[in-house]
Design a protein that fits this description.
Blueprint (H helix, E strand, L loop, with lengths): L8 H14 L12 E6 L4 E5 L12 H11 L6 E7 L14 H14 L4 E5 L4 E5 H4 L14
Parallel strand pairs: 3-4
Antiparallel strand pairs: 1-2, 1-3, 4-5
């Protein structure tokens, strides 16, 4: 991965956590298991997996589940990195990225701590590293809702 460069321990640990999370996915309709892992400044890792629903619009993405878990644990900011993995045997093997809704969800928790986390988009042979601000330029956030004054 990463063009043959040795992956640092923190990055590997985060990606491994996302891969373990993907194994618990509930994906009976798409058969596309996704795992996400969030790394916080204090070293905590919180994972999520996609949860599908027969009413497709109610499906939850792995990143959204992980962010909801983080909020449920009282975390408000401090997000430094995210790993997102999909199944190795589906698609063309290229790195997957968070969908638009997940980018916005990640932006919310990152914005609370003023961070711009790196997103590790994992594929079969490559890990693409992209800042959240690059995935979601000109993001809508809490500052847009603040009263003028």
């Amino acid at each position: 991965m990463d063009g043959g460069a040795k992956m640092n321990d923190a990055k590997k640990t985060l990606i491994d956590a996302a891969q373990r999370a993907a194994q618990a996915a509930y994906a009976p309709y798409s058969d596309y298991q996704v795992g996400a892992a969030l790394l916080f400044e204090d070293g905590a890792i919180i994972t999520g997996t996609n949860v599908e629903n027969a009413s497709y619009g109610l499906t939850l993405c792995a990143e959204t589940v992980a962010v909801a878990r983080a909020f449920g644990e009282g975390r408000r900011g401090g997000l430094t990195a995210v790993a997102v993995v999909g199944p190795k045997d589906k698609g063309d093997g290229s790195p997957i990225t968070p969908c638009g809704r997940c980018r916005q969800t990640l932006n919310e928790i990152a914005g609370l701590g003023g961070t711009d986390p790196v997103i590790y988009c994992v594929g079969n042979e490559e890990v693409r590293e992209v800042a959240l601000s690059q995935l979601l330029p000109h993001a809508f956030g809490p500052d847009h809702l603040a009263p003028k004054g």
